[in-house]
Amino acid sequence: MIFADYSNSAPSPWGAPLLLLISMPSLTVVDVIDILVVAFLIYEGLMIVKGTRAGHILVGILMVVALYIVSLWAGLEAVRSLLSFIVPYIALAVIVLFQSEIRRTLARMGRKRWLGWGFRRPEFTDEILIAVGRLAADKTGALIVLERDIGLRTFIESGVRLDANLSSDLLLAIFHPGGALHDGAAIVQKDKVTAANCFLPLTTNPAVSSTFGTRHRAAIGITEETDCLSLVISEETGRISVAAFGELEPGLNMREVDERICTHFGVRRTTPHLIEEFAADIPMESHPTERTEPK
After folding, report:
1. Ordered domains of the chain (ranges, CATH)
2. Rg (CA), the chain
3. Enclosing H/E stretch for 106
4. pLDDT tens digits along 100-158
5. From residue 191, how far is each of 126, 161, 163, 164, 166 by CA, in Å?
6. Amino acid 295: pLDDT
7. Under 8 Å CB-to-CB from 225, ≥6 apart: which residues?
8. Percent helix, strand, coil in the chain (nearest 5)?
9. Most exposed residue of 110, 192, 240, 262, measured as fewest CB within 10 angstroms of its CB?
10. Closest alpha carbon to 167 in 144, 151, 150
11. Is 143 exposed, middle or buried (0-12, 13-18, 19+ CB in 10 A)?
12. What's the CA dihedral at 233, 156, 264, 49 to 10 degrees?
């Protein structure tokens, strides 16, 4: 019998990678799904703290954990002993420091429209569009909050309870300059103006422009906590802005406002008669070719 002697043969450059590839377990469909879910959770976690003060806190916590791991690996007993009193309480610190972000994330998970299910845009929002158009034309400051599926009872109780049928005349009366209910927000639930002069939480997002005043910051803040839609009219420029999911879109015209409402409440419908009626009254700075006609 002849035996081949491979002891002096040159090792193959592909030997180690091939052995590593052979030793790796094969990926199944379940493994792929598992990896994608973990990647999604990490991505969502980063999006929660992106652009907020919580991002800096998260970096500090990760630095403490990394230092603790390095102390274990390098045998730094003094550092390890010191951090051993801190690391066990990091989980509790995360819950306390990130309670608002955690609450906001759970609320967003609960308001997802699974399988296309969602709330529909009510027909009575035509009255809201009429009021918004006239308020913008007169440069009257206003903040109107449209409730969706997360209740606004906490904020309703901070204002003056009305429970009145929704109409454009009522909204115009609420935000009439000098009125007792002018400064706060009006909250709309279905076909009712539930409350006016309501106090809303201001956004603490450092990415929000410093040019926005209290009314615009309140419009963003309430949409960070709930899934409502906020309509804001600037009393300085008459510009209309729409806030949803913590984001503010300034300088919209009536057609764009109607589209935002339709999108937010899950329908596709426009109101051409309203748009034509107020098209010349709404300042549209985003379209330089269009000019506001004097009254």
Report:
1. 27-110 (no CATH), 125-278 (3.40.1700.10)
2. 28
3. helix 99-110
4. 666 666 666 555 554 444 444 455 678 889 999 999 999 999 999 998 888 888 889 88
5. 11, 15, 9, 9, 5
6. 36
7. 103, 104, 107, 201
8. 45, 15, 40
9. 110
10. 144
11. buried
12. 90
How many C-beta atoms surround the C-beta of residue 20 within 10 A?
A: 9
**Confidence label for 160 from pLDDT (cuts 50, 70 and 90):** very high
Tokens representing 72? 């274990």
Token readout for 45 is 């976690």
Amino acid identity of residue 78, one-letter, is A
pLDDT at 178: 83
Length of the chain: 295
Q: Position of tokens 């609320």?
A: 107
Q: How confident is the model at residue 14 (pLDDT cuts 50, 70, 90)?
A: low
Q: pLDDT (tens digit, 9 = 90+) per residue, 210-229?
A: 788 889 999 998 988 888 89
Q: Report yes or no: 199 and 156 within 8 Å, Cβ to Cβ.
A: no
